[in-house]
Write a structure and sequence with these properties.
disordered C terminus; membrane; 2 domains; Hypothetical protein af1432; 465 residues; HD-GYP domain-containing protein; 22 helices
Length: 465
């Protein structure tokens, strides 16, 4: 097995889990074990078939279900087979599944061992609570019925989730030196999805044990696989969206180190306002993206202007004020941003019509832009920069309230105030990352304290805004 590049602690952990998996599955191979080889072979083959598409790189809009993600079939194996045989059912598919990063062999062995232990433990929990008897015999003999199998099935799903999460946390701690407490932090979040998978696996097991046999169970296999595929596709698309946002923000931070971290905080403040306004989940997410990307147009502003050590000339200020239009052009083709594009273009408009780039006023300014304008000014005032200290939150709120009605939408200001009263704005969130700026102090020094962003007249937002 190729394990070069794998830390010794991770190698030992993988070997230990593999030994445990062998011990769990070994009883099924002993003479006289009574292992139902026909059921085991069919379930293992089905799981292998479900995982094989994942070995091919995604093309076009097709996104295969990732290795180890088709848990309803694994839970069905836990419900239909003895613990040792259930552990074996997961091995072929896990070994054949797609691995995206090296070392490939070590990762495949780890995945097979982890799933073998997980399915074996779930099957043990199911059997200990009388689950197999509730489904009836393999020949179609009647049992107490489906309702009596729900409790053992849910217990098995909980054990499945706990064992898998614990093993995942262990490999993170061993391979990446993540503290155990942090590595296991996501364990509770995995319980819900596994409990949802349990009824699907139980339905397949019930049909498998029915007089119609395995063929009837296969009828529900395709819809279950399609639902898992759609779920995986949604999460991959969402991950691609986040990666796009992250790449754009990192590019801005590299170009303009003075505002590093500002974009994320504006996104957070925009999200708080959206929640207070009662926006739906989709609009709230789009508004968070708008806040994060509101300054992406700085990529089109000359670096010498962004990093100039002193007051800007009128011509340089006009270049800075073009960044909303540059930003709108940059994100024009990114469809998932939706309303966020308008916020990027208009977040420097003012309610009284004295803003830029188009001098819109009142309700002509898009709602998202009015939210981001408040979030942007609030973070600009509360952030500590190398050339001035940040204002306390109460002082920044007072300034926003003073400018409400002329510069800012009063409804958005009130929403931010309510959110701050409810959730607060911690120092860790509000402090800028000037401390992490690697440039020498001489280069980082600014022109001295500047008036807060909210109090500056239109068109004179200082060096960075």
């Amino acid at each position: 097995m190729r394990v070069r590049g794998t830390p010794w602690a991770a190698r030992g952990y993988i070997l230990g889990v593999s030994a445990g998996a062998v011990g769990c599955a070994l009883p099924a191979l002993l003479p006289g074990a009574g292992t139902p080889w026909d059921t085991l072979a069919l379930l293992a083959a089905l799981y292998l078939v479900c995982e094989l598409p994942g070995r091919r790189p995604p093309s076009g809009d097709f996104v295969p279900v990732a290795a180890g993600s088709f848990f309803p079939l694994l839970l069905a194996a836990a419900f239909l087979l003895p613990p040792a045989a259930a552990a074996l059912a997961a091995v072929p598919g896990a070994l054949a599944g797609r691995v995206e990063r090296p070392p490939v062999a070590a990762r495949r062995v780890w995945r097979a061992a982890q799933l073998a232990l997980t399915v074996g433990a779930a099957s043990s929990a199911y059997a200990s609570l009388g689950g197999p008897a509730s489904l009836g015999g393999p020949g179609g003999e009647a049992g107490p019925g489906l309702p009596y199998a729900l409790l053992p099935a849910c217990a098995a799903a909980l054990v499945f989730s706990a064992v898998q999460g614990a093993l995942d946390g262990g490999i993170l701690a061993a391979a990446e030196r993540v503290p155990l407490r942090r590595a296991w932090r996501g364990l509770p979040a995995s319980v819900g999805p596994h409990l949802v998978h349990a009824p699907a696996g139980l339905m397949m097991a019930v049909l498998w044990r029915s007089p119609y046999g395995p063929l009837s169970a296969l009828v529900v296999l395709l819809p279950m696989y399609i639902s898992c595929w759609m779920f995986a596709q949604y999460h991959r698309r969402h991950a691609a969206h986040r990666a796009t946002i992250r790449a754009l923000v990192q590019a801005v931070d590299i170009k303009d180190g003075y505002t590093r971290g500002h974009s994320e905080r504006v996104g957070r403040a925009s999200e708080l306002i959206a929640c207070e306004l009662g926006m739906g989940e989709r609009r709230t997410e789009a508004l968070r993206f708008a806040g994060i990307l509101h300054d992406v147009g700085k990529l089109g502003v000359p670096t010498r202007v962004l990093r100039k050590e002193g007051p800007l000339t009128p011509q340089e200020r006009r270049l800075i004020e073009l960044h909303p239009e540059y930003g709108h052009e940059i994100v024009r083709g990114i469809e998932f941003l939706d309303e966020a594009r308008a916020a990027i273009l208009h977040h420097h408009e003012r309610l009284d019509g004295s803003g830029y780039p188009y001098g819109l006023s009142g309700d002509a300014i898009p709602e998202f832009a009015r939210v981001v304008a408040v979030a942007d000014a609030f973070d600009a005032m509360t952030s500590t920069r190398s050339y001035r200290p940040g204002r306390p939150v109460p002082a920044a709120v007072a300034e926003l309230e003073r400018c409400a009605g002329s510069q800012f939408d009063p409804r958005m200001v009130r929403a931010l105030v309510r959110a701050l009263d409810r959730y607060g704005w911690s120092a860790a969130t509000a402090v800028t990352s000037d401390e992490t700026d690697t440039r020498p102090p001489r280069q980082r020094s600014g022109p001295g304290p500047l008036p807060p962003a909210a109090a500056r007249p239109a068109g004179r937002w200082g060096r960075r805004r």
